[in-house]
Amino acid sequence: MIKQLDKHLINLIKAGEVIEHCYSVVKELVENAIDAGAKNIVITLENSGLKEIKVLDDGSGMSEQEARLAILPHHTSKILEEADLYHIDTLGFRGEALPSIIAVSSFRMKTSDNGIQGIMMSLKGGELISEALIALNKGTEITVRSLFYNTPVRLQNLKNEYVELSYIADFVMKIAFARPDIAFKLINNDKLLLQTYGSGNLLEVINAVYGTEVAKNMLEVKGRSNLYQISGYISNLNVTRSSKGNMTFIVNGRSVKNNKLFNIVLAAYKGYLMIGKFPYVILNITSSSNLIDVNIHPSKIEVRFTEERELEELITDVVREALSKTNLTYSFEEEQVEPEEPQAVLEPQEESTKLDLENIEIKETEALVIEKEEESPIIREEVTQYNLDFEELKEEVISNYDYVGQLFNTYIILENKNDFYLVDQHAAAERINYELILESLRLENHKKYELLVPINLKYSKKDYFLVLEHLDEIEALGIELEEFGNNSFNIRVIPNWIFRGKEEEFLDQIIDDIIHSKKTEREEFLDNLAINLACKKSIKASDRLSDQEVKSLLKDLEQTTNPYTCPHGRPTIVKLKKYELEKMFKRIV
Questions:
Q1: Which is nearest to 278 in space by CA: 248, 318, 302, 315?
Q2: What is the CATH class of 3-195?
Q3: d(Cα 235, Cα 240) in Å, to the nearest integer?
Q4: pTM of the shown model
Q5: Residue range 529-552, pLDDT digits in tens
Q6: Which fold has domain 388-589?
């Protein structure tokens, strides 16, 4: 039942609904359709919504009385009292969206709750123009034309068609990820831009939005804790982007923005991704509604969590588990290129970017790769074929090979029956040394030895005092210093894990990192220190290796927890198929 909110409850709501873009209209109308239980939603635009926006759904619809109330401010069926604000289960709840849209447009609504008779209401600038009873299928159709015709300042702030369309396409993409059980269509100027089929299969939606190349490189993630449950997909290392635009977070069915969630996932990928690269992520977080506050901004896209630490640990665990149980060897295929960023997905600050509407369109042949009624065995098989025991993976990739030789004194060539591999010797050595050093740095009781000749390190006056300030941290790593005068220190005892022949270089690096590091978390500091030391220790590109050195390197790589990337995220191993090689030589046509 719809009723007017009391004044006390209205005052608790932080701000009125603000309609700033065509995207805002689409968002509010689509969310209303979802709250009404729609299973099919069609968004039809003219000139990217600048001329007309139409949203048609097959939800529960409204009776005549409900329709008349719905166009009035602060009328809603979704919250009735103050306590309801603390367990919101619907996408909308303020009762302000429709009145806000109506106030700045020519507005027409058709709705029926019985599929026989409905009501059609036309309004302009908030004033009722006409009302009539009509025959109508169950559901609601809302048409918005001439947005902001009566507010020139807002009208001038609208972006060009390309940017407005990019906002809308980004929203529809994310709401489709959130609700794979709903069929969505997005049409602009009679062109189908995006279509999903409502089968409930999230991988189908990923395929429709990003294409097959991305879909087949996604890894399924699942997990739960006492308070939270997580499901979704993350990409392996074969498909990455240069921006965060393809990381989608869904909380109780609502696509949200939360920088902490971005950072948690990126931290879990640390050591796998190259710097400046970001994964594809669709992460669905569900929890009791009273643990999540969505009433902190009128747009309802920002949220706060209760027990954030528990959520952080759960996300970290499920992402790392998926990566650790997956063969992350890079596969090179003929004419393989990085998947193109869907042009419809833009960050709001990229307003000056001109988009090609032809490129925004998702071709019908690509969108129809997977039929609604069928599962996707091909994609599902390709996504899951490497989800094996981690030790089996390392044995499969590294042990079952024949050593062929060195290429450019940099890459180790291995082969088996159907494939061959290139191993970057420097990246492999970095991974080995990084894990050894990090494990040693974490020890509280370091094995030490005394140098025959002490190492003297001299500092500027500023750094000398910084060393004194951080003396406890330095000695906690097993390094014993004594002041030697003239801003210098003698080091007589060092830990066993410092490599022979590089003592002075390592000590200088370690102390410099400690006194100048901005990292306050011990684990993060030790991780960065291990990365720096591993790079200095490792064999270089162009170093000629003996057969025995190669075998030793590969054996050590096999013992690491992550043999697929160096600590900077670059690949250690690249797989090339015999089939592709034979195609190059025209043995296969």
A1: 248
A2: alpha beta
A3: 7
A4: 0.68
A5: 889 888 878 888 888 999 999 999
A6: formyl-coa transferase, domain 3 (3.30.1540)
